[in-house]
Automatic annotation (TrEMBL):
Top-level lineage group: Eukaryota
Lineage: Eukaryota, Sar, Stramenopiles, Oomycota, Saprolegniomycetes
InterPro entries, A to Z: ARM-type_fold, ARM_TBCD_2nd, TBCD
Protein name: Tubulin-folding cofactor D ARM repeats domain-containing protein
GO terms of biological process kind: microtubule cytoskeleton organization; post-chaperonin tubulin folding pathway; tubulin complex assembly
Amino acid sequence: MLCLSYICKFTPRDKHIVLMGEYFGHVMHVIDAIRAQDAAMVVSSTVHRKLSTKLLQRMGLLYLPPKVMTWRYARGVRSLAANLAAAPHPVADASAANDKTSNPFENDVPAELEQVVDVLLCGLKDRDTVVRWSAAKGVGRVTSRLPFEFADDIVHAVLELFSANESDGSGNY
């Protein structure tokens, strides 16, 4: 799992896209087998769950093209006097300008990503801290590359984990 995770991290994205459909199903089958085996055992492998979470996160990131966030800090004029002189009225938000030039295929999200997000959200409820950390990093990274509508759904799903109905007394959060 660790080797596959490093391969997904360091190999260029365009090389994975060609074969992604073939080996995604195999990886999901192995991860389901590990989860079933862990459920049957008294002492389960934390490392297997952590590495499977990490691998799925990286595979999910391969499905989504990297994009620059419109809300990120953009360096501007360093002099306050020059900045005030150049813009006497409030400047329009940069994200509004970037939304007009967005990609029309931005809302195309692969169906496999739903499985990835489901496993990551289940990882947030894991009993081991390292698995929850890995799942949280994965949820954050995948959500940052999704269109706003899909990212909003994931944020709501994460917030539902904190509801009283989801609490099983384990106190993991």
